[in-house]
């Protein structure tokens, strides 16, 4: 994939019956208990759910970073379970951008070099890094190492790094977690534009209604399963999203 190619997902994202148990000595923690998710190319999906409901585990499964115990994940027509480790790493590098809950920046590299890390070298990459740093308002921090950046700046560096290879598919775990309201909204707007501009499919986890209000669809997780979903109203009203979400969570398990 070259830097100038537009990511075009021609197939939907399919998550089918995905189960994941973590085994801690004698204890089995069922983190995912049969998740079903379908996302169209260009959709911006937000996942909400209580702490421990399996959101991060699901993102890891979608990125092929966690072996699932049952079910399958299909991205852009490729069933991840059919790839060996080397193929999976290559596929991930080309197709999937990842922003983790912990930003995973390398402490000895500058912001710019952290962003550059997953990318091939070349002028097109330099231009893209410049563009991303402008768009994420971190251009003046390019020579700073992570220890000299604020939490929000580190978060934006992590987002730029996830986007540097122009992935068709972006997974973000709490991408606005340590940002103030305005900075968070700018990230949301960017994610929204990225889904619209190039048909990029975005799946973001958040606890915040004012992030979820940007989504095409909000998927609600509870105890390892996606139990419900809703479409935020077009006026992007965080209170409306909070009401819908809380209403769904209050319903008894059998009813959702
Ligand atoms: N590596 C692991 N080993 C054992 N249990 C794990 C592991 N990772 C997650 N879990 C457990 O799996 C469940 C789901 O965890 P997960 O991190 O997916 O939740 P989450 O919805 O992302 O929560 P949060 O909102 O706090 O980030 C939790 O009960 C958690 O303790
Ligand atoms: Mg999590």
Describe this structure in words.
- The protein is of the alpha/beta class and 256 residues long.
- It has one domain (13-251): P-loop containing nucleotide triphosphate hydrolases (Rossmann fold).
- The chain has helices spanning 55-62, 85-95, 111-116, 123-135, 151-163, 181-198, 209-212, 238-250, and strands spanning 13-24, 27-39, 44-49, 70-75, 78-79, 96-99, 169-173, 201-205, 217-222, 225-230.
- A six-stranded mixed β-sheet has the order 6-7-8-3-9-10, with helices on both faces. Strands 2-1-4-5 form a four-stranded antiparallel β-sheet, with helices on one face.
- Strand 7 (169-173), helix 6 and strand 8 form a beta-alpha-beta unit.
- The protein is globular and about 55 Å long.
- The N and C termini lie far apart (42 Å).
- Adenosine-5'-triphosphate (ATP) is lined by residues 22, 24, 29, 31, 49, 51-57, 101.
Secondary structure topology:
Layout: E1 13-24, E2 27-39, E3 44-49, H1 55-62, E4 70-75, E5 78-79, H2 85-95, E6 96-99, H3 111-116, H4 123-135, H5 151-163, E7 169-173, H6 181-198, E8 201-205, H7 209-212, E9 217-222, E10 225-230, H8 238-250
Parallel strand pairs: 3-8, 3-9, 6-7, 7-8
Antiparallel strand pairs: 1-2, 1-4, 4-5, 9-10
The structure holds adenosine-5'-triphosphate and magnesium ion.
Q: Number of DSSP helices?
A: 8
* Helix/strand class: alpha/beta
- What's the architecture, going by CATH? 3-Layer(aba) Sandwich
CATH topology: Rossmann fold
Task: Give, in order, the helices and strands.
Answer: EEEHEEHEHHHEHEHEEH
Helix content: 25-40%
